Amino acid sequence: METVMTGFVRAAALDDLRRRGYLTAQLGGQPVALFYHQDRVYAVDNRCPHMGFPLDRGTVRDGILTCHWHHARFDLESGGTFDQWADDVRAFPVEVRDGEIYVDPSPRRDQAAHQRQRLQIGLERDLSLVIGKAVLALMDAGPAGLEAFRDGLAFGTRYRGMGWGQGLTMHVCMMNLLPTLRAEDRPRALYHGLSAVARDTAGRTPHFGVPPLPGDSGDLPTLKRWFRQFVEVRDAEGAERCIVSAIRAGANDRQMADMLFAAVTDHRYIDIGHPADFTNKAFEALDIAGWDLAEPVLSSLVNGYANASRMEESNAWRYPVDLIALLDQAFEQLPAAVAQGEQR
Q: 13 to each of 19, 92, 203, how far by Cα in Å?
C-alpha cells in the first residue's frame, strides 16, 4: 500500500543530479523525476499524465520537458502542459539544503475540481481520452457522477446553437441507465453520454440566450398563449423569451411541461416526432440534474419547435392517402376511448 508523504523529504544528492542531469526517486510510493536545468533543480511526477510514460526518459530544452512517447510538452517549473490532450503534470516544491535535495510530494490540488476542469477541456475539444479519464475520477466525487452529468448537460445546451439534439438525448439515456448497471460499467455509460455531447457540439456555434421580460409582465396562461403563437409563426427568439420569463416567474416543472407539450403537439408528428422525444428527455434530464438548469435546458428546445417540418405540409402525408385527416378523426375519438377504457 502506498504511503502519502507530507512535508519535505530527502530525494537525492545535488552533486549526483548535477553529474547526470536527471534522477528518479520513490517518495512514499510517489515516483518523482528530478532535473538539473539552467542551474536549477526541478521535480515532477515521473508519469506522463497522458499515458504514463516515464518522463525521466524525455528531453528538457529551454525550460520545456518533452515526453518521448507522444511528444507532450510541459513547463518544467509549473508542470503546465502546452498540449491539452495531455494534462498538467504535478510539479513538486524543491529545497536544497547542505548539498541535499528535498522534495515535498504532498497532494496540493483539489482533484475533483481539477477533473471537472479537464472534463470541460475534453468536451470543448472532443477529446475522448480526456473525457474518459475525467469520468473515472469523477464517478467517486459525487452521487453516481451527478456533477459530470450536470456539466455535460450545461455544455450541450450552451454550445449547440441549433438546440437540443442527438448528443444530449444520448447523454440523458445513458444517465437513466446508470442505476441498473453494475458498478464497473457505470463510468462507461457516463463516458458514452458525454462523448456524444462532445461530438454533437464540435464545430457548432454557441447559443446566446435571451433575458426574461422586464418586471412582472405576462402571467403564465398569457405566456403559454404567446409561446404557442410564436412557435406557430416560427419565431424562436420570441418563444424562448416566453420560456425564460415563465421560469423566472416561478413556473414549476408541471406548468412548463404543459406549456411545451401543448406547443409541440399543435401540429401532427413534427419532424418525425423528434421534438416531442427531445422534450421528454429534457424533463428527464431536469429530474436528474435539478430545476436550477431549467432555463438553458428548456430554451434549447425552442429552435426544434419553431423550425420543425410539419407533416401536414408534407406531400407524402397528404397523398395518395390523407393521413392528417385520419389522425384528426382518431384524435376526436380518443377522449371517449380513454374514458371507456378507464371504466374497465
A: 10, 17, 51
